[in-house]
Amino acid sequence: NEKVSRNFIQNIIDKDLAEGKYDKIVTRFPPEPNGYLHIGHAKSILLNAGLAKEYGGDFHLRFDDTNPMKEKSEFVESIMEDVKWVCGDLDLEKVFYASDYFDKMYEYAVLLIKKGKAFVCDLSPDEIREYRGTLKEPGKNSPYRDRTIEENLDLFERMRAGEFEDGSKVLRAKIDMSSPNINMRDPIIYRVARMHHHNTGDKWCIYPMYDFAHPIEDAIEGVTHSICTLEFEDHRPLYDWVVREIGFEKPPKQIEFAKLYLTNVVTGKRYIKKLVEDGIVDGWDDPRLVSIAALRRRGFTPESIRMFMELSGVSKAQSSSDYAMLEYCIREDLKMKRPRMMAVLDPVKLVITNYPENEIEYLDVSNNQENEAMGTRKVPFGKVLYIDRSDFMIEPPKKYFRLYPGNEVRLMNAYFVTCTDYITDEDGKVTEVHCTYDPETKSGSGFTGRKVKGTIHWVCAETAQKAEVRLYENIVDEEKGVYNEDGSINVNPNSLTVLKECYIEPALAEAEPMESFQFVRQGYFTVDSRDSGKDHLVFNRIVSMKSSYRP
Ligand code: ATP
Ligand code: MG
Ligand code: MG
Questions:
Q1: pTM to 2 decimals?
Q2: 334 found inside a domain
Q3: 273 CB near ligand 1 (under 6 Å)
Q4: How many domains does the structure of the chain reveal?
Q5: CA–CA separation, 325 and 378 (whole Å)
Q6: One matching Pfam family, short form (predicted)?
Q7: Do residues 104 and 220 make contact, with C-beta atoms less than 8 angstroms apart?
Q8: Which of 235, 257, 279 is the last residue of a domain?
Q9: Residue 245 domain boundaries
């Protein structure tokens, strides 16, 4: 079984535990609270939480809130909710904030200065860039590199006290300006910036840089395996330098894996943000997006997301997964769990001319033919029904087995009907289809007299509930790919179809937000959590029945 084969991270952990490097593993998910989480983050959450669970270790949710410029506490709430939802059974009593370690980080910076491993630099940002050199060319030492320890301690203290303008001085690690790795060329570890912080308020006017802060956060929390995405591979030597120079006893180890990408789907936080800001979608939880809030609102389940992550695997090689695989996962998850109901999205009336007037009969219908444990329900049937407009044609093409004049079909869960006539309006649009039914053909009666090729669904007009149904397509025009040459997104103008006059079984009237159902022949649908109400039901299509993915 391929599923039980170990990924490369499990192999590393197995080895570390076998060699006694750590007794217990600690992993973390460190989002920056600067936006909503998306499906890529779900991969990181499930990977880290999953490893902690598998090895009996701990998993920390840590807000990496060291850059007040972009961060907002509004996002802390949404991230917490999303992480809990993705993980299911996670106990999140312990939530960590990197900003709680600002005092420690300051102390460690002082320690580096005392060891002669950090210095205050007065070069301007442009000069620093210039001195840094290029991939082909080594950098040059800053003229401030040889300041004495005393001078550095004094200047850094005064940076903290607010004596210097924003951007006028930085603290830099003293490593190696000729290193082939540019990250090691005396990187900046602290900057002066007067910014209000959501957690520490105005206490600080200096803030640590990510490459200095992150390893310290991990080490303070006793993280053993700090799992991040490939773009940090080049930063690992600096990560190791920081934990070594500060002298942490059991330093954490950084491990990189490839980001999750979905073919033709907009995943990056930056791009999702742009779609929201440009008003192309109606917020971060628009069901066409792949933010976690949007996937939830669309009707994806945590189980389907987890199955998807299992299938897509963990690797160091960059690749792109297919959205069709995610659709396969949600169908698989809902198939046996959700009732199969009838809903007519594009209605036309069907009148059964030989059925008694004013009579409603209640048919026994199985809730899920593949899962008898889900029981049955009563579905009303009467003289006037709604059927889907596409299930009737005046002049059918070859191989059309649904209704047309003279043809007999099965009304799902009910009777055979034969089309006898139809009515059109002045534009030629069909307004009613007329049929006769054969009482002997009642579903469940064991009738075997003759067979029909087509089965169509329907809803009894008198008892039907009206509903709005929203159908979605990719927000991106797949023919053209995700991005234009100028970096803008190729928006699909037909990504949303709103059907205002749909008719659903009365049993669906009680559906609660987030509840989901199969609408037979049409896919899986969920009650929209934002716009649906008792007197105005709104359903989102999660996924159609058709699959283009083969497991
Ligand atoms: P984005 O690139 O979409 O802006 P980010 O990396 O800036 O996301 P963070 O809040 O910094 O977002 O990320 C938190 C964690 O999620 C990091 O460890 C990051 O590596 C991980 N992560 C982000 N995107 C993906 C992805 N597509 N696949 C797997 N992990 C991801
Ligand atoms: Mg980031
Ligand atoms: Mg980013």
A1: 0.93
A2: no
A3: no
A4: 2
A5: 35
A6: tRNA-synt_1c_C
A7: yes
A8: 257
A9: 2-257
